[in-house]
Amino acid sequence: MLDTRRGAACATALLLAQGTAQAGGFIEDSQGSLTLRNFYFDRDYKGESNVSARREWAQGFILNLKSGFTEGPVGFGLDLQGMLGVQLDSSRDRVGTGLLPVQRGSGEAAQEYSELGITGKVRYSKTELHVGTVMPRLPILISSPARLLWQTFKGGHLRSQDISGLSLQGGYLSRMNQRDSTDYQKITIAAPNGRFDGTAESDEFIFLGGDYALTKSLTLSYYHARLDEIYQQNYLGAIHQFKLGPGEFKTDFRWSLSDEEGDGKAGSVDNQYVGLNFGYKLGGHRLTVGGALSSGDSAMPYIAGSEPHLISEYAISSEFLNADEHFWHVRYEYDFAAAGLPGLIGVARFMKGTNAELPERLGGRDREETERYLELSYVVQSGPLKNVALRVRNSRYQNSFAPNATMRDDNETRVNVDYTWKLW
To answer: Which keywords accompany this UniProt record (predicted)?
Structure first.
């Protein structure tokens, strides 16, 4: 359960803050919510594999308490987040889904785990500084929500919108807490398929950048990030949306350039990634096609456990990001609200990667991978179950990698049932 001493300290801090705050926005603008997340994860490996399946079922509880800001030119506030994960089904031969921590020694999943996040915040005009537990969602770092509980970081995150049309962001992070963990650790680099040395650690991740709305239909982005002594990365992006005939056309361009930083403790980093999506929406239909090229001596680096900002985003069995990999995909989405069924959305997608380069022990050059992805989601629109969200995803993934590679042939199913109760 949550550490009672930490919980008491946080509650005391919140009460003191409320007592000293002017009676304005600190309390009046506060918000409280409780999210219930039920998650079933089933990854069934095919072919040669030491592990036949990763299969677990768990229930999550996410409590968010957010204050407003005290009155005056400089406002102060406090946010609290409590997260609890409870095992519903697991066994020692099926652990490793990322839903639950695996206990050392026994190799079994924990019956429950929890964490408490505390974030102090300061606001001046349209600039806010958050210090403590933060969850960035930026092109160079996306805190992952893809399991039962969120990945979190410890540090500071500054956001400013004082200049019209321009959103500036910067930050310093020193520790990370993975989705299936209860403690903060030093920051590491993702290293599937032996790309980098995943044991290399850093105490410092720094980022700076922003988004600028050049016009109502065109937004440009630039970000720089540095994981001390491991890698640095520059990102450029552009999103353009405009009317075309009876529908709406969208282009999404993403470019990043990465190399090792300092001593390069995780090994050589040398990557250029270029990706482009084209999408067209007409009524309830949305069709997206796109592709990406990864070039250089390594894959594109990103923080372990986070979600890389790629054209292949939302794939669930692979990120299609090996060195020299060429990727393309086709995605079709239909919103059944256009047919009189609001809340129901279906997605079908095909993804393929070619020319991937892995270490020789994992297959070597000219490797391929494909994923067929289906999704159906529904949000209840009325009645006692209003706003309950159901999401079912299924994929079939195949590759020509060696059997000991991180990504292996599999059939995967994920089922989520989420509900957020607004406390006030």
So the answer is: Signal, Transport
Strand bridging mode 141-142 / 152-160: unpaired
- Tens-binned pLDDT, residue by residue, of the chain (424 aa): 434 344 444 444 444 444 444 446 999 999 999 999 999 999 999 987 778 999 999 999 999 999 999 999 999 999 999 999 999 999 999 999 999 999 988 999 999 999 999 999 999 999 999 999 999 999 999 999 999 999 999 999 999 999 999 999 999 999 999 999 999 999 999 999 999 999 999 999 999 999 999 999 999 999 999 999 999 999 999 999 999 999 999 999 999 999 999 999 999 999 999 999 999 999 999 999 999 999 999 999 999 999 999 999 999 999 999 999 999 999 999 999 999 999 999 999 999 999 999 999 999 999 999 999 999 999 999 999 999 999 999 999 999 999 999 999 999 999 999 999 999 9
| CB 75, CB 122: distance < 8 Å | yes
Enter the DSSP assignment of 93: G
Q: How far apart are CA 308 and CA 314, in angstroms?
A: 10
For 161-203, where are the E strands, in sequence order? 166-177, 187-188, 201-202
Tokens of 388: 């309950």
**Residue 301: which of 237, 229, 371, 355 has the closest Cα?**
229
Strand, helix or coil for residue 131:
strand
Distances (CA, A) of 40 to 59, 314, 319, 350: 9, 17, 21, 23
> In the structure encoding, which two tokens stand for residue 89, read together?
């089904």
User: Cα separation of 283 and 77, whole Å?
Assistant: 42
Which residue from 204, 199, 137 is spatially nearest to 176, judged by alpha carbons? 204
Please check whether residue 2 is in contact with residue 10, taking contact to mean a CB–CB distance below 8 angstroms.
no
Of 123, 149, 132, 130, which Cα lies nearest the Cα of 37?
Answer: 149
Q: Would you state the structure tokens that stand for residue 149, as one six-digit string?
A: 């509980």
- Please give the full DSSP string across 354-369, using - where no structure is assigned: EEEB--GGGT-SSEEE
**Contacts of 245 by beta carbon, 8 Å cutoff, 6+ apart:** none
Q: What distance in Å separates the CA atoms of residue 418 and residue 357, rounded to the nearest whole number?
A: 39
Q: How far apart are CA 23 and CA 380, in angstroms?
A: 38
Residue 165 has phi, psi (to 5 degrees) of: 85, -5
Token duo for residue 286 = 């949305």
With CA atoms as reference, report the closest residue to 37 among 62, 17, 15.
62
